[in-house]
């Protein structure tokens, strides 16, 4: 899978479901809503949590592996 960008989540998993997120895109293409204010971020993650475009984990490796698993 290429490209993949892995970031530490802004709210430490409170909305995201994990401390790390792996996106199937270049860094500049990460949706701004994923790291925005509380309301915007929580709604975006609620709507996107089961999407194949982002993986979540307690560390970067888990987030990447989750992204791969969602795309199988």
* Helix coverage percent: 25-40%
Count structural domains: 1
Rg over CA atoms, rounded to whole Å, is 11 Å
The whole-number mean of residue pLDDT values reads 95
Instruction: List the uncertain runs.
Output: none
Give the structural class.
Answer: alpha+beta
Which descriptor suits the 3D outline? globular
Q: Quickly count the helices.
A: 2
Keywords:
31% helix, single chain, alpha+beta, 2 helices, 72 residues, globular
Topology summary:
Elements: E1 5-8, E2 20-23, H1 38-48, E3 54-57, H2 60-70
Antiparallel strand pairs: 1-2, 2-3
What would you note in describing this structure?
It is a single chain. With 72 residues, the chain is an alpha+beta fold. The protein has helices spanning 38-48, 60-70, and strands spanning 5-8, 20-23, 54-57. It has a three-stranded antiparallel β-sheet with strand order 1-2-3.
Provide a concise account of the structure shown.
The chain has 72 residues and is an alpha+beta fold. It is built from 2 helices and 3 strands; from the N terminus they run ββαβα.
């Amino acid at each position: 899978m290429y490209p993949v960008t892995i970031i530490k989540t802004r709210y430490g998993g409170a909305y995201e479901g994990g401390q790390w997120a792996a996106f199937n895109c270049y860094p500049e293409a990460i949706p701004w809503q994923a790291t925005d204010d509380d309301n915007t971020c929580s709604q975006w993650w609620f709507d996107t949590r089961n999407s194949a475009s982002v993986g979540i984990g307690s560390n970067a490796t888990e987030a990447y592996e989750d992204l791969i698993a969602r795309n199988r």
